[in-house]
UniProtKB/TrEMBL annotation, chain A:
Single biological process term from Gene Ontology: spore germination
Source species: Brevibacillus formosus
Cellular component GO terms, alphabetical: membrane
Transmembrane regions listed in the UniProt entry: 258-279, 300-319, 368-387, 393-415, 422-443
Record family assignment: Belongs to the GerABKA family.
Protein name as catalogued: Membrane protein YndD
Record's keyword annotation contains Membrane: yes
InterPro entries membership: Spore_Ger, UPF0353/GerABKA_families
Keywords: Membrane, Transmembrane, Transmembrane helix
Name of one Pfam family that matches: GerA
Gene: yndD
UniProtKB/TrEMBL annotation, chain B:
Keyword ATP-binding annotated: no
Listed GO CC annotations: membrane
Major place of residence: membrane
Coiled-coil blocks: none
Protein name per UniProt: Germination protein BB
UniProtKB/TrEMBL annotation, chain C:
Protein's name in the database: Germination protein
Source organism (scientific name): Brevibacillus formosus
Pfam families reported for this sequence: Spore_GerAC, Spore_GerAC_N
Keyword Signal among UniProt keywords: yes
Sequence similarity: Belongs to the GerABKC lipoprotein family.
Membrane recorded as keyword: yes
NCBIfam families (alphabetical): spore_ger_x_C
Membrane-topology descriptor: Lipid-anchor
Length: 497, 369, 404
């Protein structure tokens, strides 16, 4: 790197320095002017689009080029402009944030984020005026997590907006935002949010630790952060929860968990997470407890179903034909007549084609999406059966499995379960039910060993703790859930009130 | 080698471990073995008495272990009985654990080849099982405890539901008369039933790992009573369905119980394979515990890290598993292990307890004089 | 931390590769359901070769077999159950019967492999029918040994006896009907009639074969591709062979003595008018009480039943009057008493076998005595005095009242 060139008293050389550094960029504008009628030269440097032009035109240029201001400047500094800096800051520029900078690198980084640099003849340092224009989109309902009942608010790509959302929804003095920077080359702001009085200090420490250990050029999305801070990169299971919903983050914070927000992405991360948390939806708490409990049990079932149904089908068809009811066995024999493939291949054909259809449906423009549904569901399903490639029962099996996996609230858990499903199918094809159960044991072994930020992944299922079970498979009435999850070792064990 | 506090297990986990260790492959043959000896339907009384006996010995083991709150049997046995005797005793117990674990795998493999996978070679069945187990035990006692806590409710719930379904073919007359031939047959049946409860010996090792070692007695009592209820239901349902004349002819009476009825109108009419695979999970838990205990014993005996022993024991267990040539060899191995356990866990702890009491008494007498 | 991850990865990779290795060689036991012949029923007859068999044997010039048993196996006909065929053309039979003759069960089953491409597969075997003639010469336990030992055939499979040709039981005229499942359905009709025995599955038979007591098996008659449950066969407790036959009436009597009936009718004649009255059983209970006095054994049997007046041909009857109901009860009681008396006489005089569970009660109430007499119980039983007390109660007479 070149040696750092600090600004000098010489206005022109300063300007040259700046031109050299960033002047060749097409979007950097340098506007030279004089204070009112005086001969004091000055220039502002800003990036088109990043800075607020209105602000520059109406507040900065208008004031500085005004005669009365020029007179005031001259009077005040009696010719020596370098000392008038304080005067500018205190009396002239009505900008909420003004920084000073002494060298061109400092200037460069700031200007490129939307600041406007003001260089005045005779002054050895430039002023950086915060004219950052925050272009935000509207706050929309989160696309990936829609609810029937609940706030229609999702995070946006702007960090300040997101923290503001949390503040507004949290309304709590405890809420603490710690700022970090990630990315070695392209720096990005990252915020760790937690409740001072609730979160376990050791957990917060651990999160900070892992965040500071991230070493990479650039962090474009919170998925990068997730992959750097997760406990076990070999595991197929997500060990960090990601969400677009502020209400979800707030309730997680109040449980004593820690949230990580990254600038430029609407996806916030929450740690630690357990398996059962990934099967929960904020709606569980917004609806009354009886339907919520029912729906929760249903989700546990769908998790198992999306994992096991094809494998069970294979083991029943190819290994344990005695297990199915006689009448069903008779009809299966009938429907499978003429299917040339063994059950495993039959299941694979259908499973793979439905995965392809899912992926294709995701990529297609919205108007064509439903068309794929028709092609996939009706034509391929129907035709495959009539062509004798698969049996109708297989189509049902695949359909039920696919729908089950979509019913899982956490998208990334759904993906990993779908992936594991193929492994279970293989082990079922080898050992039948024995293979399924051994795979289940292997999976459970993996789950009990897995931890997310020190919290075992299988809690609260085990160890048995009655107070944590109130919010596990069954969602007890809110009045009965007086304690925060014990597994998080929170500072304050009870929920107030 | 004192485990860190974080690595300790709760009292309920301890109880779960005991139940899991007791309920293994034994339940599949228990009704036959006990009826063979007693020859009356009063076996359920033997099951009760056997359970009480087991509870008594279990409490002795706990009392013994509680005298050395930061040591496992492998360490304190040397303290009580002297270095060499202690080492030999520990070695015996390690062998016992190896044999039990092999026995569990082998019984599992036998049942699996017979009822589930007729043409699959035994080595394949055993090998995948061992691999999965190894993957689990490398995680340590805490992962083990969590795993067992997940397994137990699934298997127990399913087993109870299924065996209660057999009420359809249950006939109370098969269990009568009560004590028709007096108490003698009941006592004849005690030995096999009491042996069915072996498993509480895990407390020799477990007390160290407990967060509240003073609650160990409670864990044992809960653990053994739960198993007792379980055994009682099994024996009663099996005899009720087959009568004692039928039970003795079935090699695996408990599975045949489930095979003997069909519930029409459900997704499944038949439950034996389902029950069997779920019971494989139970056997898995018994196996991993015994396996872990054996490795732990070796590690502590040689004062080394446990992991190489976990890996090293695997082939040994595999070889022992494949040693019995035929099914009667498996049952003979079972008898041998059972008889060994009477000495190792029935008599030995009592002896050690007395010796350690005497030693302390002597010590106190010395210091006071 | 890192180190343990490393080890974990190693472990994971090794186990995965082992899994893949299995995949290459594995699937030892895999066999798709539609590639097998699913058997649902089985009939055992005295050896009698079919013409086809004789011809084939002649062509093959095989040495003569020992032909003691002919086994008829009923398969599902997959062609008939698949959708395509049912919509077009004349309906096929839903089942296929195949007969084979040989010396004992398993060799016969394996003989099927020479003539059928789909391997036999029996977990769904529902019913085993054995012909009376075969049971006269063969011990039941030898005939059933394979089925009890086998891992495929479930102990819930039912056993019936046929007094004609057992293979005819497994035939039907109706297209689409499966004879084996039809038999199973008839067993379920016990709530309608007292002439069906409680089902005897292989599981129940295990105990019976292992004890010395005689027992009954449901008998089924077949003629012209129709079947009917008709009486019961008596299996001797010692020889385990066919020892006699109880007709429908006797069977009803047995049902009354054991009290295990779930429904049925009692037909009686009104004493005054001689007209028919049908009593429908709602509940049935019986209590056999053994009495042991020294060496003398005797039994009291209390039979209680509640029921309703279901059909009445008596003119001028008024069920609103208790007197009439009492009269009907008396008539029905008489009928029941006759039923049980006659079957008792048959058991004690003709068959010399206790098939109504008297021994069982004695075992429970007087285990010591039972130990002494159990060896020769059937003989002892033949001379034991039995007293019956029958009490029927008419609780209901349906929707219509007095008749003119």
């Amino acid at each position: 790197m070149e040696s750092i060139a600090p600004f000098t008293d010489d206005y022109l050389s300063n300007l040259n320095l700046i031109r050299q550094e960033i002047g060749q960029n097409a979007d950097v504008h340098i506007r030279e002017f004089s204070f009112g009628q005086t001969a004091i030269r000055a220039s502002i440097i800003f990036v088109d689009g990043l800075s607020d032009r209105d602000l520059i035109d109406n507040t900065i240029l208008k004031t500085l080029m005004n005669d009365s201001v020029a007179v005031m400047v001259q009077e005040n500094s009696s010719g020596d402009v370098s000392g008038s800096k304080e005067f500018f800051i205190n009396h002239v520029l009505s900008i909420h944030e003004i920084l000073e900078c002494r060298d061109v690198y400092d200037l460069r980084t700031k200007v490129l984020t939307g600041f406007t640099a003001l260089l005045i003849e005779g002054a050895a340092n430039a002023l950086l005026l915060n004219t950052v224009k925050v272009k935000t989109r509207n706050i929309d309902e989160p696309v990936s997590e829609s609810l029937v009942r609940g706030p229609r608010v999702g995070f946006t790509e702007t960090l300040s907006e997101n923290t503001a959302l949390l503040r507004r929804h949290g309304e709590n003095g405890d809420l603490l935002f710690l700022k970090f920077q990630v990315g070695e080359r392209a720096k990005k702001e990252l915020i760790i949010a937690y409740m001072k009085e609730i979160a376990n200090p050791a957990l917060v420490e651990e999160v900070k630790n892992r965040i500071t250990k991230i070493k990479i050029d650039h962090v474009p999305e919170s998925g990068y952060v997730e992959q750097f801070i997760e406990d076990n990169y070999l595991s197929p299971f997500p060990q960090v929860q990601s969400t677009e919903r502020p209400d979800r983050v707030i309730s997680a914070l109040l449980e004593g968990r820690v949230a990580i927000l990254l600038d430029g992405t609407p996806f916030a991360l929450i740690v630690p997470v357990t398996f059962s948390m990934l099967l929960q939806s904020p709606e569980d708490y917004y609806e009354r407890w009886i339907p919520s409990t029912f729906i929760r049990l249903l989700r546990f079932f769908t998790a198992f179903a999306s994992l096991l149904i094809p494998a069970l089908y294979i083991s029943f068809i190819s290994f344990h034909q005695g297990l199915i009811p006689t009448e069903l066995a008779i009809s299966i024999i009938g429907t499978r007549q003429g299917v040339p493939f063994p059950a495993l291949l039959e299941a694979l054909i259908m499973e793979v084609s439905i995965e392809i259809m899912r992926e294709a449906g995701l990529r297609l423009p919205k108007p064509i999406g439903p068309a794929i549904g028709i092609v996939g569901g009706l034509i391929i399903g129907q035709a495959a059966v009539q062509a004798g490639i698969v049996s109708p029962i297989m189509v049902i099996v695949v359909a039920v499995t696919a729908i089950s996996s979509f019913a899982i609230p956490s998208y990334n858990l759904g993906i990993s379960l779908r992936l594991i499903r193929f492994l279970v199918m293989f082990s079922a094809a080898m050992f039948g039910l024995y293979g399924v159960i051994l795979f289940f044991l292997l999976l459970t072994s993996h789950l009990v060993k897995l931890k997310s930020f020190g919290v075992p992944y299988v809690t609260p299922a085990v160890p048995y703790r009655l107070s944590d079970w109130k919010d596990f498979m069954v969602r007890m009435p809110l009045m009965m859930m007086k304690r925060r999850p014990k597994m998080l070792h929170t500072k304050e064990p009870t929920r107030k009130g | 080698m004192i485990p860190t506090r974080n690595d300790r297990i709760t009292t309920s986990q301890t109880a779960v471990i005991i139940i899991n260790f007791i309920l293994g492959a034994g339940i599949l043959t228990l009704p036959r073995i006990s009826v063979e000896k007693a020859k009356t339907p009063d076996v359920w009384i033997s099951v009760l008495i056997g359970g009480l006996l087991a509870m008594f010995t279990g409490i002795i083991i706990v009392k013994l272990s509680q005298r050395f709150p930061d040591k496992t049997f492998f360490e304190y046995s040397q303290e009580i009985a002297g270095e060499w005797v202690g080492r030999i005793l520990s070695l015996l117990i390690i062998c016992y654990f190896c044999l039990t674990s092999s026995l569990q795998v082998r019984s599992m493999a036998e049942v699996t080849t017979f009822y589930l996978l007729e043409k699959t070679p035994t080595w394949a069945i055993v090998m995948v099982f061992l691999w999965v187990a190894l993957y689990l035990v490398v995680g340590g006692i805490n992962c083990l405890a969590r795993m067992l806590e997940i397994i137990l409710p699934i298997t127990v719930l399913f087993f109870l539901v299924v065996s209660l379904m057999s009420i359809k073919i249950f006939e109370i007359d098969h269990l009568r008369p009560v004590l028709g031939l007096g108490w003698k047959p009941v006592f004849d049946g005690i030995k096999p039933t009491a042996l069915a409860y072996t498993g509480f010996e895990i407390m020799m090792i477990l007390v160290v790992y407990m967060r509240q070692p003073n609650k160990a007695v409670k864990a044992v009592v809960v653990g053994i009573s739960a198993s007792l209820i379980f055994y009682l239901i099994t024996v009663v349902m099996v005899i009720g369905a087959f009568s004692i004349d039928g039970v003795v002819t079935r090699t695996w009476p408990t599975i045949d119980l489930i095979r003997s009825f069909e519930i029409t109108g459900l997704l499944f009419e038949r439950f034996e394979s389902l029950l069997l695979v779920l019971w494989i999970m139970q056997i898995f838990s018994t196996f991993t515990l015994a396996y872990y205990s054996a490795a732990l014993g070796l590690a502590q005996l040689l004062k080394k890290n446990i992991e190489p022993f976990l890996f090293g024991l695997l082939p040994v267990i595999y070889i022992i598993t494949m040693t019995p040539k035929e099914i009667n060899g498996v049952f003979a191995l079972g008898d041998f292990v059972g008889n060994a356990s009477i000495f190792l866990f029935g008599i030995l702890p009592l002896l050690l307890l007395i010796i350690s009491r005497l030693k302390v008494g002597k010590h106190e007498a010395k210091s006071s004089s | 931390m890192k180190q343990s991850h490393h080890r974990e990865r190693l472990l994971l990779l090794t186990s995965l590769s082992v899994f893949l290795l299995f995949l290459l060689t594995g699937c030892w036991s895999s066999q798709d359901i539609d590639k097998m012949g699913m058997g649902i029923g089985l009939a055992l007859d005295v050896g009698n070769k079919s013409n086809v068999e004789k011809k084939l044997e002649k062509q093959g010039k095989s040495p003569p077999h020992v032909d003691t048993i002919t086994m008829t196996y009923q398969f599902i006909n997959p062609k008939a159950t698949s959708k395509e065929s049912s919509s077009a053309g004349p309906q096929q039979k839903a089942y296929l019967n195949a007969s084979q003759t040989g010396e004992s069960i398993l060799p016969i089953i394996r003989e099927f492999s020479l003539s059928h491409d789909a391997p036999l597969f029996s977990p769904h075997l529902k019913i085993i029918v054995i012909s009376e003639a075969l049971l006269r010469t063969h011990r039941l336990e030898s005939l059933l040994d394979l089925f009890l030992r086998d891992n495929e055939i479930r102990p819930s499979c039912l056993v019936l006896v046929c007094n004609g040709n057992a293979r005819h039981v497994l035939e039907t005229k109706k297209p689409g009907e499966l004879p084996a499942l039809k038999l199973l359905g008839i067993v379920d009709n016990r709530s309608r009639t007292a002439k069906i025995l409680p089902p005897v599955s292989l599981a129940k038979l295990t105990a019976k074969l292992n004890s010395e007591s005689s027992f009954l098996l449901q008998n089924v008659a077949a003629s012209d591709k129709e079947v009917k449950f008709e009486g019961a066969a008596v299996i001797n407790g010692k020889t385990k062979k066919w020892a006699g036959f109880l007709n429908e009436m006797d069977l009803e009597g047995i049902t009354w003595i054991t009290g295990k009936g779930k429904g049925g009718l009692v037909r009686s004649l009104d004493k005054e008018t001689g007209q028919l009255i049908i009593y429908e059983i709602e509940t049935m209970e019986s209590k056999i009480t053994p009495h042991v006095d020294g060496n003398k054994i005797s039994f009291d049997v209390h039979i209680n039943s509640k029921g309703r007046l279901s059909e009445n041909w008596v003119l001028n009857a008024n069920p609103f009057e208790n007197e009439f109901l009492k009269r009907v009860e008396k008539a029905a009681e008489l009928e029941v008493r006759q039923l049980v008396k006659s079957v008792t006489a048959k058991m004690q005089k003709n068959l010399h076998a206790d098939v109504a569970g008297f021994g069982e009660r004695l075992r429970i109430e007087y285990p010591k005595t039972w130990e002494k007499v159990k060896k020769d119980w059937d003989q002892t039983f033949s001379t034991v005095p039995i007293t019956y007390f029958v009490k029927l109660t008419m609780t209901d007479f349906g929707a219509s009242g007095p008749s003119k």
